[in-house]
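Budget justification note: compute hours in this period were largely spent on complex prediction jobs such as the one shown. Inputs:
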Amino acid sequence: MDHAAPGPIYRADPPGGLVVVPLDAFTAVYHRRSGMTHLLTEPAPQILAILGEAGLSLKALLDQLAGDYDLADATASALAARLDELVAAGLVATS
Amino acid sequence: MRHAFALRIGPIGFRIGSDWRAPIDQLRSLYRDYPAPQDGVADYTVRLFARRPWRRWLRPSVEIGGDYMLPEAAPLPLRHGLLAAEMAMNLQMALGARRHLLLHASAVERDGRAVLMTGVSGAGKSTLATLLAARGWRFMGDEFALLDPATGLLHAFPRLISLKNAAIPAAEAAWPDARMGPLMAATPKGDIRHMVPDARAIAAMDRPATPALLLFPRYGDAAAVRPVPPAEAFVRMTQASTNYVALGEAGFTAMTRLIAQIPAVAIDYPDGASGVAQVEGLCAAL
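Corresponding output:
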C-alpha cells in the first residue's frame, strides 16, 4: 500500500525565547538560546509568532497565515522555502 | 614593569606599564589633567614591552599587551611608543568592556544632548568632533562612545584625540592653543599627532548625555544628506560596536532602543566648515 509520508512539524522557540523588535520593513530578533541577532522581513516574524512551541505542519501554517494575513497568493512551496531559511538560521526546528 | 602610569578617562581606569621611560613620560605629560582611577583600581592594564630583552636598546620595538591580546598585533618602533600605548588602551577597551555598549564613534554634546558620529577611518569622526568642540560643543570622545544599557545614557571617553594626516593642520587651526603630542610621521595609519581635549571636556567627562542624533559622516564628496532607515542604522551600529555580541541581550536591547529613539542621518561633506554647518543645521531641526 502506498502512503504519502506525513510532512514535518515546524517548531519555534517557546514564548520568551525570542526578543522581537520591529524596526521598519525589517524586524530585529534576538534569539536567547544562541545569543544571535537576526534581521527578518515578512513573513518570517509572522511565521515565528504563529508556530510557537507546539508546532504546525506546512499545511496548517499555510492555512493560518492565509486566514490571519489575507495571503491570497501564498503557496506551499514559497512558504516551505521561507521555513527552510528559518531552519538554517536556527530559529525553527523540524520533527 | 619598570615605568608605569595610571589614569582615568571617563568611567574607565587604566594602568600602563612600559619597559621604556619615553612613552610613559609622554602619557604623563599629555594626560596630566586627568584623575587617577576610581579607588586606585584600574579596569585595564596595558603593557608595552620588548619581545626580547636586548630589544629594549637595540632597534627598540614595542609590543603591546594586557589582559586581552591580539596575537597578530605588529610591534611598533619606539618613536611611535605613544601610538602603541593608545592602541593598547583601545584594544583593552574594545575586547574587555562589559559595563557599556561600546560604539566606535566620536561624540559631542550641547544642552545635555549628544550627537554620535561614526564611520570608517578617514570619514572625519575626529575632525568633526574637534571642529564642533571649537564652536562650543562639549567634546565627549573621538574613538569610543559608551552607551549604558541600564540608562540609555551616553558616557564620555575623552581620550587624547588621534589626528591623522590632513586632520592635523585642521585641528591646529581650530585649536591654536591646544597641547599636542609629538608628530609621529609614517606610522601604519599615516601621520599621527595626538591633541589633548580642551579643559572643559576633561572637567565634564563624568557627566553623561542623552543621545539625540546618530550621524554617518563621509568626507570628500559634495554636501548631501540622506536619512538612514532604522534597520540600516541598526546593522551599521552593530558593526561599529566592538562588544555588541559579547553583551548578549543587554547589547541587543540597548542598541534597538538607541535606534528607535534617535534619528539617523548620513552626510557627505566636502570640507570641515561645511560638515560643521551640516551637523549644526541637523541639530537645530531636531
